[in-house]
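Exercise 7.
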Amino acid sequence: MKSKIFYSGLLLATLLGGCSKDTEQTASPDSTVATRSATEESLEIRTPPTSPRPAISPAKEDLSAYICRKDCFTTGPLEAKSEAEAAWMVKHKYPTQIEIDRLGAMSLSELEHEYKAGNPTAAVVLGKKISLERNFFEGQAILRDQTMSGNTYAFYAMSDSYLEKSQPNLVEGIAFLRIAYLLGDYKAAREIGNLGLTSVEVAAGDARALRLLSLFAAGQQPDPRPEE
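Solution. The predicted structure, written as tokens, is:
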């Protein structure tokens, strides 16, 4: 009788043990899922969700100052007919007419202050002003630094400094406008046409431009100004 009770107890213990293992095995995946869910929830709390931000065009507001407002059939070098052209002007460091007027009213010391602060247009205005009022070659050195840095507008100032000096040099004046044209600014060719020069003078300026190109625009590739 005792042996029957003993074996019955042993069988009951074995069955209970098996149930316990089955329970553990069944509960284990659930507990893993629960642990993973808790971890994911904690990460969501620590890292707030990021909402997409609308794309902002950095030049939108700046570009509007370049867009022509009236009489836009033929625009000058400091005017754009489209945002694409305005963006090209910004890329090649063309100023607005408002900026040219503001800087043109400054003294040399004021211009030097803005130039040292890193304003490329101030550098162009300063270089031209020094060329015409103080020391021609000192001003040209400033302008050349600008042309070498990719400031295509500086070629207009270099041309002006030769055309407006007490003894104008037409060939050099044409040459620097032609370099701006070769770099992609078709409006520089218009400026040459507006000078009313002879074909011989224009040819001489073109030949001079080819010799000066590597000295004032080394390594720069043509980037056409948008025509719209």
